[in-house]
Write the structure tokens for this entry.
Amino acid sequence: MAAIEKRSRDAWQALDSEHHLHPFTDHKALASKRSRIIARADGVYIEDVDGKRILDAMSGLWCVNAGYGREEIVEAAAAQLRELPYYNNFFQCAHPPSIELASMLTELAQPQFKRVFFAGSGSEANDTVVRMVRRYWDLMGQPERHTIISRKNAYHGSTVAAASLGGMKPMHEQSGLPIPGIAHVEQPYWFDSDRSLDPEAFGLVAARSLEQKILELGADKVAAFIGEPIQGAGGVVVPPASYWPEVQRICDEYGILLISDEVICGFGRLGCWFGADYFSTRPDFMPFAKGVTSGYLPLGGVLVSDRVADVLIDKGGEFFHGYTYSGHPAACAVAIANLGILRRENLVERVADDIGPYLQARWHSLAEHPLVGETRMVGLMGAFEMVDDKASLRRFEEAYRAGTVFRDRCIERGVVLRAVGDTIICAPPLTLSKAEADIIVDTAWSALDETHEHIKGRPA
Ligand code: PXG
């Protein structure tokens, strides 16, 4: 049935190397190593062309929340492709899947959200937010309220606006970013700070860097603040409990819009439907993607609060924005099937009450390892920090590439974990079993031992 020819691993790798430019990849380095070719997947396992099974403790790229191999989702896509493979939602048209999904999403979100704008990805969702935020303040008669404040080390996507919102310096340096009207403040990353304050005091200081920036720019110039409830790509930065309430207070006090980027935290990752629910914020926008379809097809979008939507609708006339694939019917059908599974199998509750606490307890046991300086995990989203010296929590010299060594050892042992520098991150499918949780942690422990062995006594 598969329309793709069967080739040997070598043949795939050669073709890949010749023709395929990968995202976020150093192609010279890749050419000498060659790509790992992933051919199939089931449950929480991916399998390469050689038949090696690897436990995917990253859910692809944080997206396969319902796990691989869900026939029900496949069937939903096939049925929709047969019925109506494509039509748009422009020019006074709509179709049942986009309507049904919009209504379903607003049922899951906080009550201020009654409307959804669809996009094809998280980046497009955040580009949409930038345009809606600015349009909103224009319509409110405050066009000078233009600046959106974000955080250093945030990730909001890779298009021009989304990468500008992000706080990834290397991305900015390569492309002349950020675009005007975006400012960045401190992130609530206690482990990465000088640790002179306790975490809660540090959380308040990080939040107040937002207030300082607002005062510096002038409150009448600031349109919005955007943050991931827990920063994902930046290294699963779990903010101290003091952080989000203070950010909410600041947004309220200065009347600025709050954008909760739910691309990773949404759809059960933290044991709630949205990260905003976990931290009890009341956002005005919630961009989403990834887990909404469990990655089976690409789909993103923005939940828009009444505060904003009412103004856009009542005063705005036509909003000149949209994508060919805004609310693609097959992607929406897949999302409906996927959300149906999350609901029917109580997967979100399971993260809060069952597998989440189980993996967290096991994950924290890694803190006993001599190379681990801190462990953290909320729901099924966690990290640990590798350190050279446990007493002072001093990190390794970069030349050791400790995180990369660890990550490669893990994959050899059959588990995908990610390394962001020497921060190791974990975000498995919400369907993870306890036995699979044990495999992740036991493999991580063995790979830490091997890494220890590998770098012990070596000059940097
Ligand atoms: N917001 C957040 C919080 C994200 O994590 C995006 C927006 C952009 O979504 P799209 O669908 O345009 O990729 C993301 C994406 C990594 C990694 O290395 C993370 C993402 C994407 C690719 C790699 O952790 N997150």
Q: What stands out?
A: The radius of gyration is 22 Å. The chain has two domains: 36-69+354-456, 72-344.
